[in-house]
Design brief:
Blueprint (H helix, E strand, L loop, with lengths): L1 E7 L8 E7 L6 E10 L2 H7 L16 E8 L11 E4 L2 E3 L5 H4 L11 E2 L18 E5 L4 E2 L6 H4 L5 H11 L7 E5 L5 H10 L3 E6 L5 H7 L3 E4 L3 H6 L4 E6 L7 H5 L2 E9 L12 H4 L4 E4 L5 H14 L5 E4 L4 H9 L6 E5 L4
Parallel strand pairs: 10-11, 10-13, 11-12, 13-14, 14-15, 16-17
Antiparallel strand pairs: 1-2, 3-4, 3-8, 3-17, 4-5, 5-9, 6-7
Helix pairs in contact: 4-5, 4-10
């Protein structure tokens, strides 16, 4: 075991504090990664505050990890010391079910093993990226292309893949009208990726406050959802809407914006259940879908795509002692667009 410094939430809703954790010895197929940067995702806050249900404490959040390989196990073939790598939202799965074999490890029938707030195959709790080092099986590590600096690449391990997967799955591309709901940590990557895929991109945000940013990031249109005229003007015009917000929406109103057989895909996860009049999907043969991160191969595909198109996250780099302040700012939507921890400050 190796002792490393980390920032952990000692109990639900408690401020994060500096501590030490144990990392397992490097096994035959393991990679030891010196973490350089770790993104702060809104889901870190949901879990540290038990917004999504009972959690495991102490908790070291962080599933947007970018770093450099410092040691590999004897059986490792995919990585070498010095490689630039990333780790996203999961660190293992059963590898045997239909979904795992199809490269959809995120939907592992037995449940994937999350990077933190989970129990590994050794029976020990998993700890995330707000730490100096992490040991991960090589099959759940991805390569960060040279064209991406590690700080702006870190958020791609969750925010990037979370948007890339549904945009690809539902056919965002030339000739398609795609809307992204919410211009935050997830949404800003959705705009960049949808634009790079060749779609006509609209941002649907509560206000026009970030309009200039949205257009710079690649949006063709920007509308305020607080203005009722938006829903009249855009009715029946969109092929695909991807909602990134974790607040409950008026789903009927958003479904009315879709063309016949259009899709509303959700990647934001509200803590409360939603209500829906099913006629809003039946009329027009529309689909209400969900999407959760992506498999390992698709995550690598996303990173290669982002490097090819020069797409990194828009970040605000912080020191570890600013994590609690950053959490409050994320909740207040006061970040453009992703906080990233410089783990050298842990």
């Amino acid at each position: 075991m190796t002792t490393v410094a980390a920032y952990a939430a000692p109990a639900p809703k408690a401020p994060l504090e500096r501590t030490t954790i144990e990392r397992r010895q490097v096994g035959e197929y393991d990679v030891l990664i010196d973490i350089k940067f770790a993104g702060i995702c809104h889901s870190d806050i949901h879990q540290a505050r038990e917004g999504w249900g009972e959690a495991i404490f102490p908790m070291v959040p962080g599933h947007e990890i970018a770093g450099v390989v410092s040691e590999v196990g004897a059986g490792v073939t995919k990585f070498a010391v010095g490689d630039r790598v990333g780790v996203g939202c999961m660190v293992d799965s059963c590898r045997e079910c239909e979904n795992c074999k199809a490269g959809r490890e995120q939907y592992c029938v037995k449940g994937n093993i999350p990077t933190y707030n989970g129990i590994g195959k050794d029976g020990e709790p998993t700890y995330g990226g707000y730490s100096e080092k992490v040991v991960v099986d090589e099959n759940f590590v991805v390569r960060i292309p040279d064209g991406l600096s590690l700080d702006v690449a870190a958020p791609l391990l969750c925010a990037g893949i979370t948007l890339y997967s549904p945009l690809k799955r539902f056919g965002a591309g030339p000739g398609k009208k795609v809307a992204i709901v919410g211009l935050g940590g997830l949404g800003h990557m959705g705009v960049k990726i949808a634009h790079a895929l060749g779609a006509e991109v609209t941002v649907l945000s509560q206000s026009l406050r970030k309009r200039e940013d949205g257009l710079k990031l690649g949006a063709d249109h920007y509308y305020a959802t607080s203005d009722p005229k938006t829903f009249e003007e855009l009715a029946g015009t969109l092929d695909l809407i991807v909602s990134t917000v974790s607040a409950p929406l008026d789903f009927g109103a958003y479904l009315s914006l879709l063309k016949t057989e259009g899709t509303l895909a959700n990647v934001g996860a509200p803590e409360e259940p939603i209500s829906l009049n099913l006629f809003s999907v039946i009329g027009g043969g529309k689909s209400l879908a969900g999407s959760m991160i992506g498999g390992i191969a698709e995550t690598q595909e996303m990173l290669d795509f982002c490097a090819e198109h020069g797409l990194g996250a828009e970040i605000e780099l912080i020191r570890a002692e600013q994590i609690n302040e950053a959490y409050e700012r994320v909740v207040a939507s006061d970040v453009r667009y992703r906080f990233v921890i410089d783990t050298a400050t842990i």
